[in-house]
Amino acid sequence: MNFASLVGHVPGVSTDSTVDRLTADDDLFVRMDVILGLPVVNQTLWRFPGTVDVDAIASLADKLRRGRLSRLVATHRGPGRAYWRYTPDAGHFSVQAEPVAVGEEEQWGRAQADADLDIENGPAWRLVVARTADDASVLVSLVISHVIADGGTGAVAVLEAVHGLDYTPGTAPGLVSNVVDAGDLLWTAGKTAIRMARASRSGPPASPARVTGRPAPDTDVATAEIAPNVTVLIPAADFTAAAESRGGTDNSLFAALMVGVLERCGRVSPGDVVPVSLPVSSRTHDDRRANATSGATAFVEVSPDRYEDLSAVRTACKDAYNRLAANSGKVAQRAVVLQALNAALTRRLAANVTTPLCLASNVGLVPDEFATLGTGERAALSIRAVTATDDPRNLRDRKGGISGWLALGADDVMFSVSSLDPVRIPDVATLRELVTTELAAWGLHGSRWGA
């Protein structure tokens, strides 16, 4: 997601009665949740001064429950796409009675990400407010099932709520609509499968990626934490200076930091070329999609030269964006075909699917409305996605690496890293040491989100 693309483009109200059906991208996250048991949850944490008005946040929650997030997945008999059922029951708001002990803010935030979500019966998102025991801070957690909203959709929903904008819900489909949709789905999936088969005859494209040190499948990870996260708030001036002094940008420095953490944990070695996944928002004006994100891939070499000169990393990122249309087309085609398949076929096809080795999501400049939630007070932010499985072996077997988020605030840069590799990064303590050491190599340091 990219906050900058959302400012000034908050969707208006549609006057047409429409059936909002799940897209192929939405369906992918449904299958990860329901079929593969790997639900993905987006979470944003705010840490406000203790003087903030909690009633203002309660008012925001009420608006969110009547906005674009107020939807659940609904299915119907026979083939065809699922559709969105709009209801306030899709969301839940609460003010926690027990204060959060000072020093346990980050643990509290992680616990909120583990709360149960239900994409069919609700709640599919939760907004929770709590105070610290010393009354110095008000903590806010917003967790949303990725099925219901990607980062961009969640941000738009918050902006709409802050500005008090209405959202027209879609209607339930009738029999004729379902029959027409089923035919369209099967026809589209069939055509797409034929197109993919023809393209595959020329052979797969050569990839420059060469990655070593994958985790051993039989490694015991029973005591590993699930997707531990570390969020660091770095002075914005320091971050920009570190990038520019090496001929780079905020984005290329971000990619280099992620590769550095991956190298320090032993997952890759000097000389390897790491595929860095760069999510890009494809959201348009009046976009009603839950998930509207494409993915570019930058091939970054693990070279010590990057600490002195970011030009190669910057070029790799630029090339990735130039290739975006072609790469996104292939991913989109697979998603279209998958949407027409049943659960058994999905399990079979997904048996060897892996999660990204290195994902770097730059959300861009954070607007005041999002940072303040309409309270008039800016908060310290922590943004991340969590794979909400209760078994770390599920993560190990998918061979994932690390995921990161970067957000530019008025005074600081939020750098957030999560581990999807319970073998090499099994807990917060290990991840914090890796992140701290990597930042120091660039002359950077920051404070913890909960500090």
Polypeptide structure, described:
With 451 residues, the protein is an alpha+beta fold. The protein folds into two domains: 3-190, Chloramphenicol Acetyltransferase; 209-448, 2-Layer Sandwich (Chloramphenicol Acetyltransferase). The chain contains 13 helices and 14 strands. It has a seven-stranded mixed β-sheet with strand order 9-8-10-12-13-7-14. A five-stranded mixed β-sheet has the order 4-5-6-1-11, sandwiched between helices. Strands 2-3 form a two-stranded antiparallel ribbon. Strand 5 and strand 6 form a beta hairpin. Helix 2 packs across helix 4 (151-163), helix 5 crosses helix 9 and helix 7 packs across helix 8. It is globular, with a radius of gyration of 22 Å. The two termini are 26 Å apart.
CATH homologous superfamily placement of the largest domain = Nonribosomal peptide synthetase, condensation domain
Structural class: alpha+beta
The biggest beta sheet reads: 7 strands, mixed
Proportion of residues in helical segments: 25-40%
Count structural domains. 2
At CATH level 2, the architecture of the largest domain is 2-Layer Sandwich
Number of alpha- plus pi-helical segments: 13
Protein name: Diacylglycerol O-acyltransferase
InterPro entries: CAT-like_dom_sf
Organism: Gordonia alkanivorans CGMCC 6845
Region (Disordered): 197-217
